[in-house]
Amino acid sequence: SEIRRRQRTARAKTECELCVLSKESLEAMLVEFPEMQTIFAKVANMKISDLETAAAQRRSLSVADFTCVDWNKYAAVIRESLRGDKDRAVAEPEDDAPAAADGDDAPRPA
């Protein structure tokens, strides 16, 4: 894939580390961690909703309003999504786990 020079300048308010993730790496990560796709979709939908609300209120919007995501603002949603995934994992046993017969709680040989 072609690497292009960015056309915008960003300045951090505090010290930070800037990382770049290629499209291919992101796609591979989403295959390995599909719950991240759900989180990204929720954050994107919230961002769209925020922009629609601002437009309906006729607030002036900057380029940053469209291009930047304040991850701290959406952190609670991300944490809740991750917590929900953990709760479902506990509530829903793995498909390859042996099923116990009714009333049969005896340990199974490995």
Describe the structure.
This protein is mainly α and 110 residues long. Helices cover 49% and strands 0% of the residues. The protein is built from four helices and no strands. It has helices at 23-32, 35-56, 63-67, 75-91. Helix 2 packs antiparallel against helix 4 (75-91). The longest helix is centred in the middle third of the chain and has 22 residues, at 35-56. The protein is globular, with a radius of gyration of 21 Å. Mean pLDDT is 76; it is low at 97-108.
Structure in a nutshell:
This protein is mainly alpha-helical and 110 residues long. Helix content is 49%, strand content 0%. The protein has helices spanning 23-32, 35-56, 63-67, 75-91.
Which structural class best describes the helix and strand composition? mainly alpha
Helix content: 40-55%
How much of the sequence is in beta strands?
under 5%
Low-confidence stretches: 97-108
Oligomer description: single chain
Calculate Rg over CA atoms: 21 Å
